[in-house]
Each structure stands twice: as structure tokens, then as C-alpha cells.
Amino acid sequence: MSNPRPRPNLSDLAAALGVSAATVSNALSGKGRVSPELIEKIRKTAAESGYIPSLPAKALRTGRSGVLGLVLADIAHPLFPQIAQAVEFAAANCGYGVLIADSRGDIATQTGAINRLLERGADGLVVVPRRGTRVGDIGRPVVVIDSPSTPRNTVAADHWNGGQQIGQYLLSQGHRHFVIIGGSATSNVQNDRVGGIRSSLPADATSEVIWIEDIESKNGKGCDLGLVAKAREGATVFCAVSDLHALRALMELQRGGIDVPKAASVTGFDDLIWSPVVTPSLTTMRMDMATIADIAVARLLEAIEAEGGAKSPSEKPEPHISSVPMQLVIRQSSGPAPVRRLSTSGGVAVL
Amino acid sequence: MSNPRPRPNLSDLAAALGVSAATVSNALSGKGRVSPELIEKIRKTAAESGYIPSLPAKALRTGRSGVLGLVLADIAHPLFPQIAQAVEFAAANCGYGVLIADSRGDIATQTGAINRLLERGADGLVVVPRRGTRVGDIGRPVVVIDSPSTPRNTVAADHWNGGQQIGQYLLSQGHRHFVIIGGSATSNVQNDRVGGIRSSLPADATSEVIWIEDIESKNGKGCDLGLVAKAREGATVFCAVSDLHALRALMELQRGGIDVPKAASVTGFDDLIWSPVVTPSLTTMRMDMATIADIAVARLLEAIEAEGGAKSPSEKPEPHISSVPMQLVIRQSSGPAPVRRLSTSGGVAVL
DNA sequence: AGGGTTTGATTAAGCGTTTAATCACCTTAC
DNA sequence: GTAAGGTGATTAAACGCTTAATCAAACCCT
After folding, report:
1. Which window residues (60-79, chain B) lie with Cβ within 7 Å of strand C?
2. Which of B59, B98, B250 sits opposite A99 (nearest CB)?
């Protein structure tokens, strides 16, 4: 005498319409042979009765869960929001849900996380692996988002080209003496970026690469990087391969009385959330996460489709890597190279 | 002639052992009546045959998907990674998966995202709502992570108390003239923090609150906040309610030649990822996300349990809000108040 | 007009679990 | 010796959906 239809199911609908459940199913999925008018009618009543198909039932029957797994090696990564948002959006557009798992940087846990997702029935996985980690062969489609150096299906930002872009931009501003700041020399991504920058420099330009990890292992965490001295020696631009490092450089220079961008330019990578709001706001290279996620999800669904048809393990679609161009975001922290001042006390406000 | 047992199911196991499927199910779940030896034997063969129960089947039968939905309204929020990580961990510990949905800041999309999760069969939802948004009544258990001012089940950091803690700490360092920096006066969270700070100040202390949004609406985005002037006028500590703002304050002061922490202290809130690595590293109040997530998930599972038993809608467990204390993280950006200098040009390095 | 094809719908089986109901058997008690 | 009770297992139905197989009726063609 109370709840009329708490949540109608396919049979309820069929009964109410006086047709069979199969017909309703066909009408809604557009698969079998149903007359156009009936389809119309069924869809209408389905909508107004608030019918929601049971995903578990569908999953059980079809063997597809309609869920993608997103494995973040380290969820605390500052780029995570961008990635998660983009992947979720792309997946939702294709009618898929996104299950997350995090391996908190622990390489052992990474496979654990992957397994959890597989047990939950994820149809395929998007993996953002921990640095230097390889994703082993699991029995399901996988797409990796990383630097383009993975034997699997990979989609990544074109870090090398990103480096070139920012290098060229800075050259066009008249800079000739580069200090390139990296975090860890073991990172593929960072090395790609550094390589890109250097490859864009002509013969008359100088560049020096410093790795924060190296310096800190000597002088302790949070130590000075000696940038002010380098600026005094003639470096006009500090090119960090991450906004994290760019911020650090920016503050060190400002503390040392070097005016940014008048006396020196600072640039970063990744366009992290605070990059627009610091002063001066950071010039940086942004990854096109939306495109990366779109491609990743598309490739994944492709593989999932293919998996359904192909029984023999031989005819899986060949692994493919795609590079997505990065975008230069020019803000206030970069500008023209200062007029040459040969270690004379120039017009710039120094100590 | 190839795959021996691609993925055994309950019946396969039962057949191999010569018992019924029901017995296997009971043995594994420990529910029915099965002899201890048989349980032992079944569990053993289950394990070594690599048996993985089908979640969809279980979900279909029991009506529980074993999945929690995580709704992030304000995905740009820098705390997002911490929250997601903590929730995922807490849920995984309880054998639950986490499905994410993002409403990209759009308030209309928020309900859409919630619905997507419900359609996917989420047993319950953890919602981190967009500022000023209320979560409407959906037919499932919900826990909200927000400032403690929501009519629903809510768990939140005790922002007010956090404000008091940092206020007291700064008082103990001798500070008496506070500038409190907020972003938007419409944020509950920020208001709580500001209120907490002020409530901790004795009569002989002065405080002034400035809202960045207000200043920027007059002077344009990224404008100066006039902090250097305030420092000259005697303010010795700049208390931001977010590390984002603290960073901005820090840079503005450093650019103006104010030494932090010698001439003035700067503190923030949230312990964002870069807070330890800027120079000087930021003193801040950290939320205990792990605890918050634990409580949120626990309360959610509780509600899900209760929902199973209680038929009458009346006897749902009463909404409860919990506050989790924040943790003071002392780093380099704060220190003792400088010795009094009555607008005379002190010993500090200025312009 | 009657055999073949097309169209629009139905029937029924099955996906892998859980669980209430049932059953056979063994104890125990009177 | 037999009824009552306990124990350890089985049977069978159900969860909600998809889909191949089937079927009845309408259509086409010569």
C-alpha cells in the first residue's frame, strides 16, 4: 500500500506495457527488430517511470562491467586532478565509469592496486606509472600515460617538443645564457624536457643543467641552489622542468634581489594550480590533458572491443604510442633578455 | 586444448571438489554450516586455483555493488589528491572500490555526477561539495566532507580549532599584531579558520582581516596586497587561511625586502604539496585527511548496513557531524616576533 | 494461391552468486 | 526403540539482464 514502484526493472516495464522483457531490452538498446512506434513508446514509458537498468545484471550477462580502472602511481602528484578530471570526462562521454586505485608511490603496491581493479571487473586500465616502473602483462587492455618510451600502448605529452617550444620562445626573447633546472636525473620525463630545450639552442647560446637532487644530497634539503650567483655571472633565464622547481627558483632570485622578469626570466612546466597566482605569474608549458585522456580512453575502448572479437591472442591490435603537443603559456615571469651588462653595476636594483 | 581454467567459478570449484556450489559459497563466506575440515579444504583449493569471485554476480544477487562513489565538486581544489588518496585507501581497507565523478566546478553538473554514480550502483557516496552547495536527498547513504555546517552526515576538519591552534602558537612566539589573509569571504571553511584565529587573540593583540577577492575586484587579479606597508606599520605576522595565499604573501614580502621569518612570520593552512619545498618552508595547519577519510568511510558503511536492515524510513541512524583536529606543522616561515621598532629604520635590510 | 522471405515479436536459457528451504543422517533422551 | 533435536550437506529459486532460437503473421514473387 506504499511504494508504488521503488525501482522498476525490465520485467516491470514489460508487464506494464504488455510486451515481453526481451522486446523492451531490444527497444532500449536498439539491437533486435522492434517496430519504430513500439520503440518510441517503450522509450517514453521507460523514461517517465524512471527506469534505471541494473549495471550488475548487465555486467554479469555480458561480461563487461562498463568500468575503467585508473591507476595512479602516486595520487598525491600535483597533476593528478587534471588527469583524473580528464579521464573521468572522457570515460563518462563513452558511457564508462572510472574506478580509482592508488599505489602511494610504492612499486609493490602498484601491482596490488592493478589487481584490485581487475578483480572489481574493470574492462581496461589507464595507468600512470611510477617513475621507472614497467607495467607487466595483465590479461586486459592497458593504456599507459607516461613519457613515450614504453613498450605498451602509450599516450603522452611530447615533452621533448615542449622543451623545444619553450627554448625557441626564450631565444626569440633574446636570451642566450640558459640555466636548466631539473629535479631528478633519473626521470624520463624530465630528461626529455631538458633534451628538448638544449636541442633548440643554437651554437652561440650556452646552457648549464643543474639537478636539485644532486645539490640537495650535498647541501641538505631546501638549500640554496646558487641561482643568484649564476644570474650575476650572466645567466638571463632559468628554465625549470617543473613549476615546482620554477617556483623555488623564482623565490630564490627574488630574495636575492634579482628582478623577475626584468633581470632574469623564469619558466616552468605543467601549469600547476598556483602557477597563475604567484607573483609574477609563471610562464610555463602545459600538457593538454583533455586530449591525452581522450586518446587514452579511445584507444582503450578500441582494445576492449577488439578483445571481444579476437579469440586468438595473436591478432591483438599493435601497440601504438601517441604524442600530444604541449602548449606554451606566457605569463609574467618571462620577458626579453636584459640589455647586456658586463658585470658592471647596471641599472637594475641589486642589493 | 589450451586454456585449462581461464577463470574458475564457484561451480567449477564445487565440481572439482565433489561438493555443491552452495557449500563452497558457505565455506568461503563462513556463513552456513560447513564442517571445519571442509572449510579448510575448500579455502585451500580455492586459493590455489586462483578463484576470483564475480563481483557483478554477487552484486546482482545481494543488491550491493561493493563500490563507493566519490564526488569531487571542486576538482581544482588543491587538496583533491589528498582526499582522493585517503578515501581510496580507507575504502580499499574495507573491501570497497571507489568510483569517481567530477562536476568540474559546475553546480548543475554536481547532481548529474551524483546520478551517474548511483546508476553505476554505488552503495553510498562521499561528497566534497562545491562551496555553498547543499547535497539534496538522494535515496542512498551520503557522507559529506566539508566544514561542519551541513544538515547531513558530515565529517570535517575542525577549522575553527585549527585557527585557534595557530593563533596560540603565534602568540606564544610573541606576536601581537596580526594580519589575517583570506581568499573569499563567502567560504565557510575560511570563515571558520579566521574566526578561530581571532577568538584566540587576547585583548592586547590587534588583528585585521583582508580578503583577496575584495582587493582584486578593485585592483585587478594578481595585484599587490599591500602587505609590505602593513609590515612597516607594525604587523609582525601574516596568517593566511590557505597555503595558496600564504605563498603569495611570502613572495610579496620577500620582494619588498621584508625578511621572513626574521622581520615577519607567514603561516598558511592545508600543507599543500609545495609548502615544504619553498624557501622558507611554510608553517601551516594540516588536515588529518587519513582520519577524516577513515571516519567518513566508516560512517558510510555503517549507514549502508543500517539501510539493509531498516525497512521503515523512520529509523535511519541520526545524522552526526564529527570534527577532526588539525595538526600544526612548524617550519621556517614562522618564528619569534621581531623586537619592537617604532617605525624607526631598524636593522633589517630594506630597499 | 501457395511457397519463400521479411518483419516484429516471444520464449527460454544462462551469466555466477547467495540463501532459504529441505533433506539425510547421527546423537541424545526417555 | 523411537521421537526429538542437531549437524552438515544439498536443492532450487532468484537477482535483472541479453541474446540466440523460435514462431506467427504479414509480405513478395511468379
Report:
1. 60-62
2. B98
| A58: in domain | no
Q: Is the omega angle on the peptide bond into residue B36 within 30 degrees of 0, that is, cis?
A: no
Cβ of residue A20 near strand C, that is under 7 Å?
Answer: yes
Q: Peptide bond preceding A280: is omega within 30 degrees of 0, i.e. cis?
A: yes
Give tens-digit pLDDT for A292-305: 999 999 999 999 98
Angle at the Cα of B276 from the Cα atoms of B271 and B278, rounded to 5 degrees? 115
What is the C-alpha separation between B192 and B295, in angstroms, rounded?
Answer: 21
Cell triple for A210: 643543474
Alpha-helical segments (H) within chain A: 10-17, 21-29, 36-48, 55-62, 80-93, 107-119, 159-172, 188-199, 212-219, 227-232, 243-255, 289-309
pLDDT tens digits for B241-279? 999 999 999 999 999 999 999 999 999 999 998 899 888
3-state SS class at A199 = helix
Q: C-alpha cell of A32?
A: 533486435
Kind of pairing between the strands at A67-72 and B283-286: unpaired
Say whether the CB atom of A35 is under 7 angstroms from strand D.
Answer: no
Q: Are the beta carbons of A186 and A132 closer than 8 angstroms?
A: yes
CATH number at residue B26: 1.10.260
Q: Which of A59, A98, A116 sits opposite B56 (nearest CB)?
A: A59
Number of A to B CB contacts under 8 A, please give it. Answer: 153
pLDDT tens digits for range B116-137: 898 888 999 998 887 767 777 7
Are residues B165 and B210 part of one domain? yes
Do A252 and A147 share a structural domain?
no
The Cα angle at residue A333 between residues A241 and A86, in degrees rounded to 5: 55
Residues A110 and A229 in one domain: no
Judged by a CB distance cut-off of 8 A, whether residue B88 touches chain A is: yes
User: What is the mean predicted confidence (pLDDT) over B4-27?
Assistant: 88
**8 Å CB contact of A85 and B102:** yes
A241 lies in some domain = yes
Pair (A270, A164) in one structural domain:
yes
Residues B122 and B102 placed together within one structural domain of the fold: yes
Whether residue A88 and residue B99 make contact (CB cut-off 8 A), yes or no, is: no
B134, B29: one domain: no
Helices of type H across B30-158: 36-48, 55-62, 80-93, 107-119
State how many domains chain B has: 3
Tell me which H or E stretch contains B100: strand B97-102
Distance CA B45, CA B33 (A): 19
Shared domain for A173 and A260, answered yes or no, is: yes
Using CA of residue A230, residue A231, residue A233, residue A234, what is the dihedral sign? Answer: positive
Look up the domain containing A153 and give its range.
Answer: 66-157+289-323
pLDDT tens digits for range B7-16: 889 999 999 9
User: β-strands B283-286, B321-324: how paired?
Assistant: unpaired
Residue B60 covered by a domain:
no
Give the minimum alpha-carbon distance from A61 to chain B in angstroms, rounded to a whole number.
9
Based on the fold, state whether residues B197 and B254 are members of the same structural domain: yes
